[in-house]
User: Fold Carboxymuconolactone decarboxylase family protein from Streptomyces glaucosporus.
Amino acid sequence: MDARLNYFADPIGGKVLKNLMAAGRTFKESSLPTATQELVALRVSQINGCAVCVDMHTKEAAAAGETPVRLNLVAAWREATVFTEAERAALALAEEGTRVADGAGGVGDEVWAYAAEHYDEEQLTALVILVSFMNAVNRLNVIARQPAGDYKAGQFH
Assistant:
């Protein structure tokens, strides 16, 4: 499968994507745990059907030490016993933040309070921006049908 667009070949697309990817790397500087970042990025990408992002974040998480069991259970995290309460709160926020069109109220107060029990304001800010960022990147990749499978961990660092 070939991508419909090569964003980096277009002058405007290349400039925007370069800045967008730089913004994405900024999350690594936050105090939001790396494992949480990768689990959230993976779950948002699963929901949106972004194969290239599922590929990337599965491999990045594995390279950071994430176990195959946890990676395989992200899609069924509610029924899985391998996630911490903090990770479960982040995944709940990620799901509601991704599925805003499915629910009239967006992220509910209960989900927000659950996340706020486990993360400070800086971490919550990083989490909210990460969910929004992943949704934007997922849409760019899904629309252009970016192919998956060839990503190497650390490729964009």
